[in-house]
Amino acid sequence: MAAGGSRGEPLAVESQPERFSAEEQTAEIQFKILRGHSDTVSSCHFCCEDSKILSCSYDRTVKLWDVAKGFPVQTFEEHTAPVSECNLSPDGRRVVTSSYDKTVKTWDMETGKVLWTKEHEGIVTSCNISCDGKYVVSGSDNGNAISVFDAVSATQVARVQGHHRSTITKCCFDPDNQRVTSVSYDKTIKLWDIVARSTSITIKEGHSNAISDCCFTSDGRYLCTASWDRSLKIWDIKTEEFQSHGPVTLNQGHEGSVSSCCFSHDASLVVSGGYDNAIVIWETDAGYKKLSLKGHWDWVTDVAISESKKWILSASKDSTLRLWSIEKMDLIPSVIESSKEKGSKIAQCEECERPFLSLQHGDFEVISKCVFCRLSAPARNILPSPPSIPPDL
């Protein structure tokens, strides 16, 4: 691979087909490498109708990239320590960031100036802005607390001290702006109701190891969690009898801890990144790994998928971002062969009547419902909870 410029230069872009390992040795996926950060890239998002990318880094900066040109068009510099997460407001006018410098900042997208700064008592590991743009939530390691602020005035609306027993790795609003979901090293998943000011759902031992990330489907019904136990789980968090429904588990995709997850806008795909330096694309309905993308030479820290489903974006500890073109991935021989090997076929869900990729799970078992309708129906055999092991964190 040709050198694309030294680390820390404002622009270095490479575009060429990726050569895969034996599993996908016949595949060619076009990709671009975006260089501009000088340290771990911790968070990334598509924005502005997929024409821009927002990223932040341990180099203390936040950058807005032009996708077509492949270089940053705006750099936000005010943080004095690594930036843990960045988000864009729904109207595209404000950027919200969290940092190990114990602050959350809101920036004007156009001018790059800081609109407000909120000091915390500990490092801030995560931040998110509500889908209506009214509130900002942050997760801090001081007291393992979540805090909710007015997005315009920065007035603190709520603070939940001791929300988790260990560091909060991710906090985010649901698409209905009613609840804040958070996950933690303590292996729990919590949904905190903004109106009731109380925790409405707690899933203890949601995974067998630290939970690193979570994301919602665009309708807010399903939550995906990623974990250091090398798996992802999809939960129907709007089901009233939630505790009796086993989640759908996605595994056998990563060889190491899973760091991040993201649903496509139509929820047909889940994309995950891992500490095995790989990105995995999962077929949600069928619940299996569709394709693995390898190219980063260090941990993949975050992933995103464009609304058009043509591009996947990955951020890495190797200081780069990668744009992967997946528009034609269904034509890749390994993807076609994988579907054939699993006995897949297009079927119609008997409940919602939408088409889905059906896999034969056994010699006699026939799957007649898509994964979302299976999640909403009471399980015939309730899955046992993992054994309760006191966290040694």
Characterise this structure.
The chain is mainly beta. The protein is built from 2 helices and 31 strands. The protein has helices at residues 333-341, 371-376; strands spanning 12-19, 28-35, 41-47, 52-57, 61-66, 71-77, 83-88, 94-99, 103-108, 114-119, 124-129, 135-140, 145-150, 156-160, 168-173, 179-184, 189-193, 198-203, 211-216, 222-227, 232-236, 248-250, 258-263, 269-274, 278-283, 288-294, 300-305, 311-316, 320-325, 345-348, 355-358. The strands form 8 sheets. It has a 5-stranded antiparallel beta sheet with strand order 1-2-29-28-27, with no helix packed on it. Strands 3-4-5-6 form a 4-stranded antiparallel beta sheet, with no helix packed on it. The radius of gyration is 20 Å and the shape is globular.
List strands and helices in order, with pairings:
Elements: E1 12-19, E2 28-35, E3 41-47, E4 52-57, E5 61-66, E6 71-77, E7 83-88, E8 94-99, E9 103-108, E10 114-119, E11 124-129, E12 135-140, E13 145-150, E14 156-160, E15 168-173, E16 179-184, E17 189-193, E18 198-203, E19 211-216, E20 222-227, E21 232-236, E22 248-250, E23 258-263, E24 269-274, E25 278-283, E26 288-294, E27 300-305, E28 311-316, E29 320-325, H1 333-341, E30 345-348, E31 355-358, H2 371-376
Antiparallel strand pairs: 1-2, 2-29, 3-4, 4-5, 5-6, 7-8, 8-9, 9-10, 11-12, 12-13, 13-14, 15-16, 16-17, 17-18, 19-20, 20-21, 21-22, 23-24, 24-25, 25-26, 27-28, 28-29, 30-31
